[in-house]
Amino acid sequence: MKEIENTTSEEKRNKLQLKYGTELNKKMIIVEERLGKINSILRKNMNTHSTDQGAGDGNSLTYKHLVNFAVKGDILLGDNKGKAIQGPINHAGIYNGKASKINRNVILSAQTYSGVLIESTKQWSEDNDFVYILTVKNLSDKEKAEAYDTVAAVAEIGENYTVWTLKYTTEDWYCSKIPSGRITLN
User: Cα(39)–Cα(45) distance, rounded to whole angstroms?
Assistant: First the structure.
């Protein structure tokens, strides 16, 4: 698989197709179509800010981006081209509203190596080519803050990471489950 890592998406797909046949290609096309539909829906229902839009310091996410463009409960999506099989958006988190010059550990998320954690803006800058800040339209800042508080109350730091968890449970986590709000409290 090493020879596949440093290639474009199209080259990667061609190499995988040769290795695994056309069945994989058919499934990848279905996944890409679904991701396209999801992205279309997101663009209609979200206001976004990319760290590439006039921030003045390249693509890095800084605490200033969060202070200037985000409120507690806004969703962050990381885009690291070439490092993830699931597509260009490969990491997610939710902003805790506490970014400052002193405090840069402000993104609640989950990682395979440590489970649920609070990540820093520095880590997001190093791990992603772009970071998108999404804010849900038609929700007040208070409602977004309540959404963060709800998730933070059940997603305890250090809890297990696995992609094999159900969306509506609070036992295990993956990064995009945290900001999705798809949890049921008993």
Answer: 10
